[in-house]
Amino acid sequence: MKQQEIMKVLQEYHTPAYVFDLDALARRLKKISSALKQDKMDLCYAMKANPFLTGAMEPFVERFEVCSPGEFRICEREKIPVERLVISGVNKEPEDILRIVTEYQGRGIFTIESQQQLKLLSDCARKTGYHIKVLVRISSGNQFGVDRELAMHILTEQEKYPELSFQGIQYYSGTQKKSLSLTEQELKSLDEFCQEAEEKGHTVKELEYGPGFCVPYFQSDSEECLDELLEEFRKLVRNMEFGGKITLEMGRFPVADCGSFLTTIVDRKDTQGQIYGIVDGGIHHLNYYGQTMAMKLPHVQHISRDAAENQAEEKWNLCGSLCTSADVIVKQFPLIGGKVGDVLVFERVGAYSVTEGINLFLSRDLPKVLFYSDEQGIQLIRDTQETDRINSGNF
Ligand SMILES: Cc1ncc(COP(=O)(O)O)c(C=O)c1O
Prior knowledge:
The two termini are about 40 Å apart. The protein has helices at about 5-10, 20-35, 55, 70-75, 95-105, 115-130, 150-155, 180-200, 225-240, 250-255, 355, and strands spanning about 15-20, 40-45, 65, 85, 110, 130-135, 165-170, 205-210, 245-250, 260-270, 275-280, 300-305, 315-320, 330-335, 345, 370-375, 375-380. Helix 4 (about 70-75) links the parallel strand 3 (about 65) and strand 4. The strands form two sheets. Strands 1, 10, 11, 12, 13, 14, 15, 16 and 17 form a nine-stranded mixed sheet that branches. Strands 2-3-4-5-6-7-8-9 form an eight-stranded parallel β-barrel, surrounded by four helices. The protein folds into two domains: about 25-255, Alanine racemase (TIM Barrel), CATH 3.20.20; about 255-380, Lyase, Ornithine Decarboxylase, Chain A, domain 1, CATH 2.40.37.10. By secondary structure, it is of the alpha/beta class. Bound molecules: pyridoxal-5'-phosphate. The site of pyridoxal-5'-phosphate (PLP) has 13 residues, from strand 9 and helix 10.
């Protein structure tokens, strides 16, 4: 976000706060989507990356990947049509699945992540009389999905499950892939899988693939070249034999860029030759994938309380408000004329930071969540929220 937009936010609201810039989000999504559309690929938003953005993503993606009853309820409140949801995840609770299938007459797409889930979905479809669309998730060697052989077996024996409509396969192997070489191997292997299925009499209609594209979080990372990356990826897709529909399931890549976290330096101390700056946020609010020992420098704007000229640069250890020595956001961060009362804007935190932190620790309040756009200005989406009641039995 530009400094003048941040200043507007700070005039109205105190830190700590997340601000999601919806104009930046829209610009990025339009670019990604229009490039991928040229090769007829659709987008699916893995909403775990930032559920607050579910409604804002609606005009730009065809689908939403939903992995819990809570995520499903968010989609219901955002009025996302169920047919656009891919109901995924390892723990599908029978009551939830039955409720969704019954209430929405079998609409939506469900992933199969185990033999038990295959049975659950088949039972649900039979019980309710609604046909259910399914994707079989292939495992990348972890607890998600099923073995390739089992996936092939399920797909080629699909006549045993006339109540299920087998749409295709889902595959996601991990995030922050720094190059496309693993992607190339994965697409090749999935292509071979689809060809083998075809030879065995089953046409895979759809491939729902999570590319796990990388976000350059740190100053030492090479900056992204979006057009080039998308072009290279599209080339890989064009090399595939697979002729069905491809949907790209993405979380981090589309949304990281639109998020900023605003936090104030509340204390400074010089201890044993080190400068410690305590901020009103902390590691429970910021999640930079790949940040080990707080050694890498993220992208941070420094909004100075009273900017004077000719001030010296000092290296600050920026620590949060939790009672743990682990609450070090970044070590040796260079600040010119840093002072108590200055605001630091941690950038590129639109993905995962708002939900992945240990927010209940120390019973500190949850920060505000704000949206910003030129048209709507600043919108308060979630006010500061106390956690002490969640953390105690004394109501
Ligand atoms: C099945 C699936 N698809 C997509 C994603 C989104 O991944 P990313 O944030 O790397 O884009 C995840 C993340 O965990 C996932 O589990």
